[in-house]
Each structure stands twice: as C-alpha cells, then as structure tokens.
Amino acid sequence: MTRTVAVDPPDGLGWMVRIRRSLASLLAKFGTPPCYIIAYGVTLTCFVIVWFRHRTLLYMGRDAQLSLWLHKAYLDWAHSFDVTAMNPMQGMTSMLVAMNPYFNPGAWIFQTELPEMLKLVASFVVYFLEVTLSTVALGVALGFSRPFSFVASLWLAFLLFPPFNFVYGLQGWLATSPTYGHTLTLSNLIIIAFLKIGDTSPGNSGFVGLLARNWLLATCIFLLVILIVLAAPFYNGGLLIGTFLLGGAIFLASTSYRAAFWRLGAGVYVLSCCAALHFFEFFAGARAYSARFSAAEISVLQLLAAGDSSSSLITNARNLLCGWGIFCDRLAAWPGALTGSYWLQVSIILGGIAVALRMPTPLARIGAVFTTLWVVLLLVWIGASLGLIVQPPFAPIYFYLMMYPFWAFFSLYAGVTLIDLIKVRVAPRAPPVRHQWMPAGLCVGALALLPLFHASPSHVLRWHSPSVRIETPLIEILRKEISLRPGQAYRGSVATLLGSAGSPLRKLLLENDQQPLKPFDFEKFFRKLILDTGSTHDLLDLWWQDIPTLSEYGQGRSKALMFYVWNIFNAPTDPKDYNFAFPRVANIDILRALGVRFIITDLELPSNNTRVRRIVPLKDDINLYLYELSGPNLGGFSPRKVSVQISPSELLERIRLGPALLESEAFASSSVAEKLVSAERAQMIFERGAVHVTASSPGTSALLLPVQFSHCFRLEPAQGVRMLRANLIHTLLIFSGELDVRLKWEFSFWRNSDCRRQDADDARALGLS
User: Fold this and answer.
1) What is the CATH number of the domain that holds 727?
2) In the listed set 426, 446, 461, which residue is the last one of a domain according to the structure?
C-alpha cells in the first residue's frame, strides 16, 4: 500500500503556503466562496462601467458640487480638527458648512493629481467598498448568516448607489451627497459595537471584565460619533437621529435584563460624553441662528376636511412623500420595472415579520421591534402628507438614511422566504439552492442593467474628463481683481443681480415679467447664461475661481444677511427663499457698505458711483455687464458717528431716506460718546481661521468691516479695542492709535460652543427672528 507523505516546502516558500491556507480558511467560512467573490466583482464592475458611461450621475446637482467645493475650501481655510471655519467666499464671510476631507477616505482621492473623471469614479468605488463591507459585518453581528449578509450588502448597493437606485423609485441621496456613504459606514460600525455591548455569554469574564469590555465598546461608539460629526457636522448631525433610533430598537430587543442594563449604561455614557463636549449647545445654537430654519412651521393639527378628499389631495401627498424620499414612482424609464418604491416598503415590513417569526433570538426581536418602528414612522409621514397631523420638525431623511442596511436585510429576507414557501409547495424534496441562486441572481441583475443604461466595457477605456470650468471674460477680470486666498488682502466681492424688475432677461424668460418671481425662477436665468456663456456667473462658478460673492448657498446663512437680501436687495413681492441668498436690486450704496466692488447684471445701471468694465453680448440682443463700484468698503469705512442700535424697520427707513448713510454713521449695540476721527491705512487680510486687521488713527476711530459680526470671533489682542455689532450685520471696531488685531474664528464642540446661541439671542432681541 502506498502512503502519501506531506513534504514541507522549501524555507523560502513557507510563507506562501501559510498565506494560502489562511486565505482558504477565511474563504471557507463563507461557504462556496468563489460564487460570492464573482458576484461582488461583477456587481462592482457593472457599477463602474455605468459610472464611466454616465458621469453626470456622479456628484449630481448643485449640492454635490457644493460638497466638492467645501472640501476644497476646508483645505484652504480650515485646520484639520476645526469643526467650522470662516468662509470668505460667501455672504460677507459667513460660516463655512464644514465638510472635513481629512476624515473621509472618499475625499482623499480629490487631493491627488489624478484626472477629474478618475477622481469621481474612484471616490465612488471607495464609498462602495466602505458601505458593502461594513454592511456584511453588520448583518453577521445581527445574526444573519455570512452568505446572506454578503448578498444583502450587494443588494444594498443596488438600492443606494446611482444609477440603479433610480430604477427602484429611490431618491439619489448618494448621487447628490456621496459623503453619506462614509457616514453610513460609520453608523454601521456604531450599531455593530452596540450589538456587542451586553454580551453575557458563558465565555465572557466576570463583572470587572464585562465592565472593561463594555466601556471600551461604548468609547468606540463615542469616537465614531465624533468622526461622523467632524466629517460634516451640519450634514451628518441630523443623520445621527436614525442611528440612535436603531440603537433604541436594539436596546428594546435585548434578550435579558443584564444586556439591557449594559446597553442602557452605554447609551447614557455616550450621551454624557456628547453633553460634556457641548454637542447639544453647538447644534441648537447653529440651528437657531440659521435663516435656513426660519420658515414658518405648522403649529396646529391640520384636520382633513371632507371636501379635500380628492385626487388632488392624493397627488399632493404622493409628491410630498416622494420629495421626502419615502414613496416614489419609478425614476428611471424602464418598461419592465416595478412601479415606484411602494413594493420595497411592503417587502421591508413583510421581511421584518418573517425574521420575527423564523429567526432565533435576538434577531427575531430586532426584526419585530424594527418593523414596529418603521410602520409607526410611515404612518406619521403619510399622515403628515395628508394634513392629518403636524409635519415633523426634522426631514424624514434624518430618520431613515442610516436604516438603508436594514431595508436591504429585511426586503431580501422577504424574497428568500417567498421562494422558500414556493419551493415547499412545488418541490418539497428538492435540496436548498439558496447559496447558488442569490449571487447568481445579483450577477444577472447587474449585467441586465448595462444595456438599460447603454453601457459597455468599452466606456471604461474611452472615458474623458469633464470639461473644465469655463472662464468667461467677466470671470477673468474678477479673478485678477478680487480673487482671495489665505494671506491675501481683501479686495472686494461681486454681486450678481439677475431677475430684477424691468431687466431684459426677466422680460425674455418669464411668461409675465410683471408678476412676482416664483421661488425657483432664478434657475431660468442661470440656464440662459450657461447656454450663452458657459457659466452662471454666480455661486460655484465664481467660488471655484476664489472669487467672493454676496450670494450665498448653504445651511449657515444668517438672519441678518437674509434681512438685507429680502428687504433691501429684493423687491417686496419677490419670494423669500430660505435656501439661497440672491441679491436682485442694485442698491449701490448699501452694496458698497457690504464690501461689494463689482456687479454682474443684465441691467443698465446709472453712472453714479459705477463704471462699465466689460460687456458680454448674449443672444436675443441682451448684454451682460460687469460694473465696478467706486469706493467700496474694503475694510476702510470709518463712520464718524456711532449711534445706539435702532430697530430693523427704522434702519430700513433711514436707508431709504439716505442710502449712503452707513458710510458716515453706524448703529451699534452701544453708542460711542467720544469724538471720532477717520481711520487711516486700514487693511483687512484673510488668514486661515482669522481676519487680520490693521489701521491707524490720530485719535479714536471706528472701523466698519465688511464681515458679519459674530460672538464666535475672538479679538486678539483685545486690550484697548472694542468689537460691536453694527447695522444688524457689520463688525465694528473702536480703537485709538495703532490697530493690529486678529478676529479669530472659534466655534466648535470643545471651544466657544455657545457663541452661535448668543448670535441667535441677538437676532431675537433685534427683531430678526
């Protein structure tokens, strides 16, 4: 009889054998690993092919472009651990809605020298890997099998990533805000850590060991929360609502009092750490001061009147639910697709019920609790859309975006259960084939979507980077004259005025230019300028060129700025837009006082204090003008009189009587009794995290800065200098002799976290709320 003898490999090759054995052992845990690896590779490859074919689906829309610019602005104007930073590009130095690229692997790609197209696709590949791998780990931690968790992670990619999510009637949250992929990954890790807390299995040590283990897990949860809010505080802060709701569901599904005790303790510990770092004051103050959240909210129950139960009511409710991203009709034109995402919501609920009935505890309890939670949330949102109850104060996306992995688990389990039931009826003796058909089904689905989007592997080889941002003759002048980088002196900003009464563009583009503007009419003006010149000449088209604007877009718009925009730079009949700050009326003297040096408009302005620098002809015999204003406030306005603050209505009346008023008189939080003289040699330099102001005075002077006042500024050194709010918005410095100070921006969890609440208190006291 011949006996086989194992021969050890040569010493130099032993490491290869060990790696091979380790890899084989790891893959064996998944059972039939090749089909799953192939399914993962095929799915990711299909996504990449479609992304190369349809570049416009990556970083889609203004929000996505804003996120890219914010990452760039953060690198320019913020330090690594800043939570917020100054933003000299928008609205008289507004608050930068921070999106920290240092804590987001998907954003690291944009700091490389790769071509733009490769950056876009590579960043989405990073988010794909993050989301799917963390979802596999979450599924296993919940109690699903490894193969099921693996397939569910790929099913999640179909539901979440563009363009396949549109086929199922789902909103493109990752197309417009790709950083949500990183946020979802961190949220998955938080839930995994929370699931591990309270594990009292026999293999664990005694009380001291459990205490140390659970404390470490709770600390990891807190650190993950910090990473989420550091990456994008005002985008991600609200999304933590969904993560905490999932944590509450897991707490309620605890299988023992001991597990519930440990999880309750961990939750209290994490919330206490957040409170110690002033998380709640930070977010509450930022929200209170932002004009973004000033819109009137429904304060009473809106009962459904009998006469409203019509098709229009249902249509409006469906539109609202689709806008919230809950129920939508198909968003992709595919004749064979299921209509809308209604089926998904049904399958989530049925899958949760199936998990509760078929799976062992604690997963069964989690399925039951999550299903109950999801049904309650759906009933609340449906009732709000019909006017039966008050609309929720927070957008529904804050509740459910972090629940997408649970959507994938339960909806997929509903399909698996249905097939099992059919198999029992049709072929009860047939062996289970789930491990084969699930990855095979995903491969077929991924490959079938390629012809739907007219994509082929050749598009990966024939890609080309998107066109560079067009620099028109007007933008070229602005970039040379007023572009601003850290360490440079402020040279003024630009105001783009489109759609004012009597403007040629308004007469051309609106059906009736005598009627008040509608909220999104500005898009028509932008579209016209893009078609004729290639640029909107506003917002991101200027910020990418480091050109400061009076326009603003983001969540940090102050109520003081919006007061000026709504009451001075807009007509009374213009809509109060809470998402944008767009000036439209050419009030020259007030624009000068706010630091505006140039105006872009299709209007012919009077020659007083203005001169034409360039004219760009548009189609339809319309011209686009670039005007330069004489004597703008570049940090050198030095009013000789400082009076006590007056009400907003009184300020408007004084400005109406004398628009040049703010050059000679300031209305501050306290009057100045000293005799004031004009300041000399004033200069304002923007640094990373501070504004450096220098000037001199033969006596006592007031310096009116084109910077929005905030209690978040720290004056260094503060001796002999007073900093006041003036004219509702300006920063006013009172000094004698030589002035050399820095206004350092400090607003974070651990540093000056209450300053925005103080700003909100000022706004209420001034009547701006």
Assistant:
1) 2.60.420
2) 426
Nearest to 182 by CA among 245, 139, 224: 224
Most confident segment among 33-42, 130-139, 142-151: 130-139
Which residue(s) pair with 695 in the sheet?
739
CA distances for 762 relative to 100, 279, 288, 478, angstroms:
29, 21, 11, 35
How far is residue 616's CA from residue 596's CA, in Å, rounded to a whole number?
A: 20
673 and 735 in a single domain? The answer is: yes
- Give φ, ψ of 571 to 5 degrees: -75, 155
Asked if residue 704 is part of any domain, the answer here is yes
Q: Which domain holds residue 589?
A: 490-629
Q: What stretch of H or E contains 505?
A: helix 504-509
Report how far residue 618's alpha carbon sits from residue 624's, in angstroms, rounded to the nearest whole number: 7
Residues 589 and 565 in one domain: yes
Predicted TM-score of the model (pTM): 0.89
Give the mean pLDDT of the chain.
87
**541/592 same-domain check:** yes
For tokens 């949250």, the residue is 173
Q: Are strands 641-644 and 665-668 parallel, antiparallel or unpaired?
A: parallel
Adjacency order of strands within the sheet including 596-601: 493-497, 596-601, 622-629, 610-618
* Closest to 556 in 3D by CA, of 745, 695, 360: 745
pLDDT tens digits, one per residue of 599-621: 999 999 988 889 999 999 999 99
Identify any residues that bridge with 628 across adjacent strands, giving them in sequence order: 598, 611
What is the Cα–Cα distance from 504 to 499, expressed in whole angstroms?
8
Please measure the distance between the N-terminal and C-terminal CA atoms of the chain and give it in whole angstroms. 95
In three-state secondary structure terms, 748 is coil
Helices (H) and strands (E) counted in the chain, each on its own, are 28, 16
pLDDT band at 447 (very low <50, low <70, confident <90, very high): confident
| pLDDT at res. 10 | 46
